[in-house]
Specification:
This protein has about 280 residues and is an alpha+beta fold. Among the domains are: about 70 residues, no CATH class; about 110 residues, no CATH class. It has 6 helices and 7 strands. Strands 2-7-4-5 form a 4-stranded mixed beta sheet. A 3-stranded antiparallel beta sheet has the order 1-6-3, with no helix packed on it. The longest helix has 18 residues.
């Protein structure tokens, strides 16, 4: 990971609120900090995305400092791409000959709702000729391994409105780092209606994963597997009386909920006008 954030501040690493549980594994954890420039050969649409891409290659640079052996199994994913317990056991018992892209599901706002397959995490056999981790994420793959999902991609799965804001402030999709996506009421409705954060498309219920295969039995993680979990409504323009009809189309914030670019309804303007490209 980069030692600085998108805004140039020091990147503080935290395992809160699980410091006590993780401490027993601390000798097995290595945090790799690599400051990398954005070279021309990185196929990124802009500098923001290039920053994300080079961090993945920075992991490879850091890994090589620990002298991995040829043939070592390397599991590579972003921090929000997490294998299930069953999935990890299956991967270890079915290691790749060379590499394979893993079968995963894109889930939001918790592990009970999903919409799309997600083929980005991968497992490979290490060799010193590997030059890029990002290369494997860019491989077009329609036959992931195995035939059932073994990894979750829960990119916008939080139990607090402020955590959603911090995510929006710090991720590569900086075109969405503004109103209405940073508005408390917008975030609440997105979460309550089980919509994608960036685009108001519904994520249907999904029972692909169940129980402790996803998270340990811990109260602090219940929001990840509770299909009825709701954010703090007191921070919004809504009340409990609004909930029965909150997800109806007339309450959408955009005129064109399934089209791009989005057109905000005038009643949600905070100025004279709103344009996605301004």
């Amino acid at each position: 990971m980069s030692p600085i954030t998108f805004t140039g501040l020091k990147n503080n690493i935290s395992f809160a609120p699980f410091e006590k549980e993780i401490f027993s594994y601390s000798k097995k954890l290595t945090i790799i900090n690599e400051t990398l420039n954005c070279p021309p050969e990185i196929n990124a649409p802009n500098e923001v995305w290039c920053r994300e891409f080079v961090q993945r290659n920075g992991l490879l640079k850091g890994l090589k400092k620990h002298n991995p052996a040829k043939g070592d199994i390397v599991f590579v994913s972003d921090i929000d791409e997490i294998p299930t317990r069953t999935g990890m056991k299956y991967i270890l018992s079915h290691p790749p000959k060379d590499y394979y892209i893993l079968n995963a599901l894109y889930m939001t706002p918790n592990f009970k709702f999903s919409r799309d397959p997600w083929y980005r995490s991968f497992v490979l056999r290490y060799n010193d000729k590997i030059e890029s981790f990002q290369y494997y994420r860019d491989v077009e793959n329609t036959h992931p391994f195995p035939h059932f999902p073994v990894v979750t991609h829960c990119s916008y799965c939080f139990n607090d409105i402020d955590l959603y804001k911090r995510k929006i402030n710090s991720f590569a999709h900086q075109e969405f780092n503004r109103y209405p996506w940073t508005n408390d009421s917008f975030i609440f409705r997105m979460h309550y209606c089980r919509h994608g954060l960036l685009w108001p498309s519904a994520h249907p219920p999904d029972e692909a994963f169940v129980g402790e295969d996803l998270v340990p039995n811990d109260e602090r993680l219940k929001f990840l597997i509770d299909p009825n979990f709701m954010l703090d409504i007191s921070r919004t323009i809504f009340t409990e009386k609004d909930l029965p009809t909150l997800c109806n189309a007339e309450n959408d914030w955009f005129e064109n909920a399934t089209e791009f670019p989005p057109v905000l309804k005038k009643k949600f303007y905070i100025g004279e006008k709103w344009d996605f490209y301004e």
